[in-house]
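User
Please review the sequence:
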Amino acid sequence: MKENLKFTESSEYLAARGEFASYYESDILPVLQQAEKIRKRYAVTFWLMSVCILVWLGYVMFTIGQGFNPENDSGKGSGYYGLAGCLLTLLLCWPMLGYHRRNKENLLPLIAKFFGEFTYVYRPELPLPLLEKSLLFKKNEPMMADDCFNGTYKGLPTNIVEYITYNIRRQRDEENRTERMVYAKKGGGIIFYAGMNKNFTGQTLVVADKGWLNKLVHYKNLQRVGLESPEFEKAYEVYSDNQIEARYLLTAVMLEYMTELKKSFPKIEFSFFENHLLIKIETKKNMFECTSFFRSVINKPRVEKIFTELYLLFSVIETLRLNQQRML
């Protein structure tokens, strides 16, 4: 890549995007078209059930207006209406149950397959020791995995995990006799990590710039690394216990990719340690969203956005791998 070109103007990105356009037409679009048929069928069912429920509610209100009194009917009429309401509501929501997850299971691995062989796993165990070594996560913070993609990128084991963090608090009943644990979602995001062919001699962190609060940030045995890139310095702070290796890893091309990723993911951080690259993307939004029950599944710009996000993440691995091949 020519370093004086913007990311979106680089020949590598334009070539990859052209290849992905062909891949979209041949492999992704047929899947989307089939999914769209299913969505339309479910949508018709949903709106028909909505009309039925509205008619039923109108009938109930009319009956009440005519002087219906559930107490005079031993509660039977009220129970029947309640049961009918539950059944109608269940039927209304039934098409949406599992729809979102099924589409993600079908589409996201297919998009990732453009870069390598990936499989989808629902709520696997998080690699907690690895996360702790990365220094990007709070120690003993309650968290769990949601969606996960395991595979290989150019021979390197690579994982994309959507994670959720949550708060835990104790709550007692009104009589203060029993206690239960209450879990409340706090945040989450994406963990993107890959194993490299060689070990790093030290550890290097690239974290979000915190302004004047940088003076309060301390990592054991790590020191701040200064880099000659004003745009990068505005977005990130670098810490390492090996200044030479840190500068060797963070080439001009690598800094460009990281700066571009910052535009898509404002809260993104990197850790290079042992033989791992780990990228943490913190966000409250569901990442890699590609479908909606009330909108057409066939949305090429939305798929291309996911492609660009994945391309940037995989490009960090590729650039790092090339750097490692030149390291002594």
Observations:
- The mean pLDDT is 79.
- The chain has two domains: 7-30+100-326, 36-96.
- The beta strands are 117-122, 143-153, 156-172, 179-195, 204-208, 223-225, 236-240, 268-273, 276-282.
